[in-house]
């Protein structure tokens, strides 16, 4: 996708906006891109940005399934080895990342459109009309809505 | 109480149904029937009463779907996570299941009349043996009916379903029936509990919660999601119409 191909341009824009919006405080909030090779980065900085596209959805699950079946074909695993946790750990594009607590959905379409189906099992899905000219008030009220959500975890 | 409420729509309901049916209609609707316990608290009755009224509402909603020409309905009746509830509540829900599945076996004529095929989806071995037997009987008894389909997710989570599908494919590889390269999105589709159904067009969750709670995560990736604040036992024909209209508004975007 466009965002994935233009990492550095996206980072420049983020840094510029941080300076504009946060003024002197902006140095407190470091931001790093998370990519496949640098799982350590995730632990060392305050904010990490992961850019995803539709291929990180079902296609990732299929890839994990293929990888597991490959191990089975090579007799390194049996089918009974596979449970929810094993499959979870095989999903590579989101390795080291916790499941999203909140999805902020922009636009008029009432659907997740294939976004990380596995990972959003408990994610709160809050919609905002558009990311264009979004106001801080709108953003904050979405966070407020999230804070009011009560998870019962099945209990 | 019966699985399908008898009765036709009122004149006003029929009038609105005809208007709605002029637009695109969902063929398969999924429901997360949430809010039974909050309803019970609100009405100062026992939780078990809330669940029982929840079942009655399911029967009524099925009736509305039949009247609207919606051929397939999938409902989230009991999650694997719900086993974490108190023994008293879980036993109560299991008793409700026993009662309702037994009732289902008694009303064969009604099910035959409406041509309802009942399927139960989930990790059924997690359930008490006698309930597994009742479920098996109910599913066998209705398996040839094909006018409409009711899928009841019981002892279900989506992650367990997907893991089970991958395990089946891995078993296929072990038995030499498949190569790893045969593993694909459509093969996985065919190994899910829902393999006999098209993906839901519309997913409705009641009680105001805005999450999927491990329900049909794979199958609803491109479905219209409608979150409604009404508690499930209070669900009305108008709530259903509202959800269908939202589906219609999203229709061209989701094609």
Number of separate structural domains of chain A: 3
Residue fraction in strands of chain B:
5-15%
Under the CATH scheme, the architecture of chain B is 3-Layer(aba) Sandwich
- The strand count of chain B comes to 6
Q: Order of strands across the widest beta sheet of chain B? A: 3-4-2-1-5-6
Number of helices, counting only DSSP H or I runs of 4 residues or more of chain A: 6
Spell the H/E element sequence of chain B: HEHHEHHEHEHHEEH
Q: Give the overall form of chain A.
A: globular
Number of strands of chain A: 4
Structure class of chain A: alpha/beta
CATH superfamily of chain B: Decaprenyl diphosphate synthase-like
Looking at the structure, what is the overall shape of chain B? globular
Overall mean confidence score, pLDDT of chain A: 84
* Oligomeric state of the chains present here: heterodimer
Q: Give the low-pLDDT segments of chain A.
A: 38-43
Gyration radius of chain A (Cα, Å) is 19 Å
Kindly report how far apart the N and C termini of chain A lie. 40 Å
**How would a textbook summarize the main sheet of chain B?**
6 strands, parallel
Supply the number of structural domains of chain B.
Answer: 1
Which sequence of strands runs across the widest sheet of chain A?
1-2
